[in-house]
Amino acid sequence: MKLPTRQRLFEILPGLLSWSSLLLPLIFSFVYPAAVLLFVLIYAMYWFLKALIMSYHLIVGYRAYKRAVGTDWMAKLTTLTPKEKWRDIWHVVIFPELKEELSTLESSFQALASSRYPLDRVIAVLAVEGRDHENGWMLARALRKKFGRVFADFLVTEHPADLPGEVRGKGPNITWAGKRVATYIARKRIPPENVVVTTVDADNRVHEQYLAALTYAYLTDPDPIRKSFQPISMYFNNIWQIPIVIRLLSLGSSFWQMIESSRPHRLRNFSAHAQSLKTLLDTNFWSVRTIVEDGHQFWRTYFAYEGHHSVVPIYVPVYQDAVLSPQGFWATVNAQYLQRRRWAWGASDVAYTAEHLIRLYQRTGRIPWHGILQWLRLVEGQVSLATTSLVLAVFGWLPVLLNDELRLTVLGAKFPLVYSRILTIASGGLLITMILTARLLPQRPRRRLGRLTTFGEWLLTPLLIPVNNVFFGCLPALDAQTRLLFGKYMTTFNVTPKMTATIHQPSPVVHPAR
After folding, report:
1. Each residue of 394-434: pLDDT tens digit?
2. Three-state DSSP class for 196?
3. What is the reported pTM?
4. 462: helix, coil or strand?
5. pLDDT band at 499, cuts 50/70/90?
6. Which of 61, 91, 397, 437 could be 258's S-S partner, Cβ–Cβ 3.0 to 4.6 Å?
7. Which domain holds residue 96?
8. Rounded CA separation 17/484 (Å)
9. Which CATH number is 282's domain given?
């Protein structure tokens, strides 16, 4: 079915802007090289200021995280009025499954079972994918045997394979599970506004404080139905098993979530997130037509409530696995690239959001100013992801390299020194991330030459980060945006290989529902 012309124009926009941002400096390096140098200097100063702002928010986010994990949220719940109000809240946690190992899911369910929250108000759901029927039900039997009596209930759903109109992704599976949960909740006569649903990945291990902190945020919010609740994703489960290249990316993703949590006006649903069952009913659960159902859910909820929707940060973490393939280093690198390309498919939300802002205007005669601002942030974020590192690392030097005469001018002669100093000072934020890394990461396993290896990795970090930003930031983003530009839609969720480790987390004791 041919898409409307207006939607196609908005689909083209991210790729068009990104490629223009890369090709125009190249072209003008031959025609107006001095103008390109001035542009690059201004661009570098802009990113220097952004680096300062992000460093500040990283510190703010880290301090909020430390306060959150050190708070007794159950004690705070008991102070709410009316007394025992929190007992009315039920939690549903959905674990989607596709070709998962039993050990992975056992660790995730074990973490949920170790929550410092009464488990008689927790319903665990294993969402089996029909394309993995035999393995999925083997997992279901094993997990039910171990955890079946731990929670208030243990539900298993199976999403039929390849339903018409659905992509091969996580969204269709958790939507199928969510609808089955809604039927179950209706039979139990529990009001949907009293049910909070968290969707996680199979490898996700919720912090023991997560459910209590989520309950407190939900009950103290004046309008929780029109909110999403976002914990901090931390890719620490197997952090010391992965190559240094992937470890830096995982740390960067964790720190970025910490930064965004300190700026709630910019926060979006990402990976593990929570909404009330009432909200999910109002939005018809998650999208079954995109492979990035998490971020897309923000916009679906935003337009379902005509702009009255925002994300509440929960500074308690959900621990996740970083990418690690059993087939070795290069397979891991390839898998990491494919994961980043899938994340970058969020560029498709540019067209979706623009189209629905226009429809909102046609229906109500107004567009919320914050809706336009959110859309502009979305566009800027996608273009920056695809271009910034390339512009700063490569294209900034082209005018000087390509023009001998320019090097004889004052601007051309002074540019390399000024530009390199700006970039050096801007990279000062790296020191903050290294300090926080030492404070956040679990202790490294003792092994021969362990300290020497760690020291070598610290030395390599400043060199690897720019390379990572290009090969796992710009290139997968350009890949995704170029596919969107030419209408080559991504409809299959590439399952990311992950090898779970428990080296830094003691095995918690499972306690029965109480």
Report:
1. 877 777 787 777 777 887 777 878 888 887 777 777 778 77
2. strand
3. 0.91
4. helix
5. low
6. 61
7. 87-338
8. 13
9. 3.90.550.10
Cis peptide bond prior to 82, omega within 30° of 0:
yes
Per-residue pLDDT at 456: 65
Task: State the Cα–Cα distance between residues 462 and 465, nearest whole angstrom.
Answer: 6
Side-by-side strand order, sheet with 90-97: 153-159, 122-129, 90-97, 195-199, 273-276, 227-234, 310-319, 205-206
In a domain, 415, yes or no: no
Look-up of token digits 């139990």 = 188
> What one-letter code names the amino acid at 447?
R
Between CA 140 and CA 436 the distance in angstroms is 39
Task: Kindly state whether residue 315 falls inside one of the protein's structural domains.
Answer: yes
Residue 505 has pLDDT above 70, yes or no: no
How many whole angstroms separate alpha carbon 132 and alpha carbon 430? 43
Max CA-CA distance within the chain? 80
Backbone angles phi, psi at 394, to 5 degrees: -120, -60
Cross-strand pairs, 270: none
CA angle (178 as vertex; 173, 184 as ends), nearest 5: 135
Give me the pLDDT at residue 458, please. Answer: 66
7 three-state secondary structure? helix
The pLDDT tens digits of the residues spanning 192-231 come to 999 999 999 999 999 999 999 999 999 999 999 999 999 9
Mean pLDDT of the chain: 89
Q: Which two tokens stand for residue 429?
A: 């934020």
Whether 25 is covered by a domain: the verdict is: no
Amino acid occupying residue 186: A
End-to-end CA distance of the chain: give it in Å, rounded.
53
Both tokens of residue 292? 């990035």
Residue 209 lies in a domain: yes
Q: The tokens 């460093």 sit on which residue?
A: 55
Report how many domains make up the chain.
1
Q: Is 410 exposed, middle or buried (0-12, 13-18, 19+ CB in 10 A)?
A: exposed
Per-residue pLDDT tens over the stretch 329-347: 999 999 999 999 999 999 9
Chain centre distance of CA 150:
30
Compute the distance between CA of residue 52 and CA of residue 50 in angstroms, rounded to an integer.
5
Give the pair of three-digit tokens for residue 196.
């909070």
The per-residue pLDDT for 451 is: 54
Distance between CA atoms of residues 146 and 109, nearest Å: 10
From CA 75, how far away is CA 269, in angstroms rounded?
Answer: 28
> Pseudo-torsion of CA 45, 46, 48, 50, nearest 10°?
170
**∠ CA(268), CA(272), CA(277), 5° rounding?**
85
